[in-house]
Amino acid sequence: MANTIFSEEEIQQFRAETKGAAHKIHFNNAGSALPPDVVVDTVINYLQEEAMNGGYETEFKYKDELENTYNLIARLVNANPDEIAILENASTAWSAAFYAINFKPGDEIITSEMEYVTNLIAFANAEKKSGISVKVIPNDEQGNFPLAELEKAVTPKTKLIAVTQIPSTAGGMVPIVEIGKIARKHNILYLVDACQSAGQLPLDVAEIGCDMFSVTGRKYLRAPRGTGFLYVRKEIQSQLNPIFMDGFTAELVGQHEFKIRNDARRFELYENNRALVLGLGKAVEYALNIGIDKIWQRIQFLANKLRQQLKAIDGITIHDFGDEQCGIITFSVKGIDSTEVKTKLFEKNINVSVGKASSTLIYMDKNQLSSIVRASVHYYNTEEEVGVLCRELKEMMQ
Fold it and tell me: Per UniProt, which keywords does this protein have (predicted)?
């Protein structure tokens, strides 16, 4: 893939609008990306206004902008604004959807080997409390999710298919659109964890065919930490029972009666950080203005560059499997623990992350990996930064 999607001037503009890019080589975008300056300024300015004018008064002043955050998110994922709930993070969003499902003894959940630790804990909890069972579909020898095996695993007891599109400790991807076709065919609830996906690649909930879809802001969307959202398809909202409710979630119509609101905000509570909500909206707007298609092409270009250069270094093993791969590159350095690699790179002003077995337990155990180094690229990274990372890794092994 050629580097023609952004001009050099555009890349430098993105970097000029991101103060952190001048100080760090940041390859931890799948952990928490560097936010654009406009996002930081939006949050700080709102907090300053709260301090001067009062929280409720400032919220009233910005009510249209706060409301528009739902519209922007809806544009991002091709949903309706009343199908969006804004929450603190992806785990809260995912859990709000999962625990609202009315599981009964004998129900089955189908998932993949790439599922995230928080979700696996929820499955184990449901097994103990509700008497459900969980089926894990392992990837094939090439590292691809086998759709035929999913089809075979479906039974009349299958209540939910839940998958993470991009795992925490691997660069492969789960085919969520094709899985959605199977879910719709059998009328099974479908929950997608898009924590690592949103802001990295185009997402269309109508095309995916999912019922529920959870996202964090801090990763590829470049939003503040403490932000996220949940998409819930309008047609199934009434089937889900929120586990937490307040006077925003529901209306008290009598001392012993209440009516839950009829949109996705039934999964919100009244109190949240309005400054962060505005920051989330600004980050989504920033990404939409650049173009998610372009962002995805740039990420793929840089990820391919990094994988090619890492493969040429003796002593480095790449652990990404599957035909479709993303902007997360996972690898090991021979003779050096992953945490030590991260520490040594940090001393050279390069940020990477360490993926531990617990984060994606089934996948990591299957591949006998205790930890990996995770480098995750974004569109504001450069080819020069890729080269610096690889040179430092080479020197580390000398």
Answer: Aminotransferase, Pyridoxal phosphate, Transferase
